[in-house]
Design goal:
The protein is of the alpha+beta class. The chain has 3 helices and 4 strands. The longest helix has 24 residues, at about 85-110.
């Protein structure tokens, strides 16, 4: 999760709308906020800051002010509940059995990783030779035109 703060050179509302539309189309975006007074755009999500800047520079001048991890709200630490030792042992035993079954299933199935084609190459007939050059003469064709 990244938090990117950008400084934009927004001239009017139309440019601002174009910038928001371009950024909102990015994959992995979680939130966008634009401070029009300071001309700062804050983008959070799983995004690449370079991609954001590349999209915005087609519209207006863009500077990266800061890039950093997005602050997640602090979660209250819950105390782990104490479980019965018998239940824990049963869960552990079931997990081991499931792992053993999975391993057994994988051992039974042999997947050939290499696919060899041991077929001889197909016999291809050679291409036909071009016909010999044939020049017509006026003696063979009495209607032929002769340019002298």
């Amino acid at each position: 999760m990244m938090k990117v703060i950008l400084k934009l050179d927004l001239a009017d509302d139309k440019t601002k709308q174009k910038a928001l539309k371009k950024v909102s189309g990015l994959f992995g975006l979680e939130s966008i906020s634009l401070d029009s007074k300071d001309k700062k755009l804050t983008v959070t999500g799983d995004i690449d800051p370079i991609d954001v800047v590349a999209k915005l520079r087609k519209i207006c001048y863009t500077e990266i002010i800061s890039v950093g991890p997005a602050k997640e709200p602090e979660k209250k630490k819950e105390e782990p509940k104490k479980e019965d030792p018998k239940k824990a042992a049963e869960d552990k035993k079931k997990a081991e059995e499931a792992a053993a079954q999975l391993l057994k299933a994988q051992q039974a199935y042999y997947q050939n990783l290499y696919y060899y084609h041991n077929h001889p190459p197909a016999a291809v007939a050679p291409a036909p030779a071009y016909p010999a050059y044939y020049q017509r003469s006026s003696e063979e064709d009495p209607n032929a035109c002769v340019i002298s």
